[in-house]
Amino acid sequence: MSSLFKRSNLLSLLTVLTVFVFAACSTNEDAGTGTLKVSLTDAPANYEQVNIEVLQVLVNKDGSANDTTDSGWEAIMEDSMVVNLLDYQNGAVLELGEAELEAGRYNQIRLLLGDNNNVVVDGETVPLQTPSAQQSGYKLNVQADVESGQVYDLVIDFDASQSIVQTGNGGYILKPVLRTVNLQEQGSISGTVLPLEAEPFVYAIMGEDTVGTQTDDEGFFRLVGLNEGTYNVLIEPTSEAYADSLVEGIEFEDGEQYSFEEAIQLEASGN
Question: For the segment 93-104, what is each residue's pLDDT rounded down to a tens digit?
């Protein structure tokens, strides 16, 4: 009787374990995988070139991971490249890499930079000093929800104008100012500014948040990565012959792509 009781308990235990393992496997399969794509764009800067060496891009579900040697890191990009940030303005992006990942929320991204960084000023190439702290990469907190079978398009906005600090002896230091943009969820403002010789900077301003760019050779601009809200658009010509212009109260919802229907004509300074 005792032997029969023990055998019955053993069979019950095996049944429970089998159900548990099957359920765990089913849960992992249901999670699936999705694709995380990471690209790079830039805000304008008063340099002829801003060349940055990008070594690696990593993501982690654990937002508290302090070092790239910790567990949980997934590589999005591993082949280093030197990028002129000023080639990627007005919504133009450079794809750094993509990877198929386990579905779920990724809370941290790390951008690792090398030492081959420089700016070109008046035709002269000047090295950018890079702080030693960058060895562990620049941390960006994100909430990237990678869904099964879907592509999450994440853009790193590298603000070159705020990232370069000029020293008293004529040198330059690189202190990256970065933010992330989800292209699917965030909006944009675009348009054309004339005359072309004004070559203005264009800023979208909401409270303390400012996103900037500079018009291209045809006067076109596009400001990306804008959250829902009401923005003022400030246009600042680089030519002193033209006056600043301010367009107030542009409202749009998440993901809306706002475009000025007519070109914005700048007035001559003093008018």
Answer: 999 999 999 999
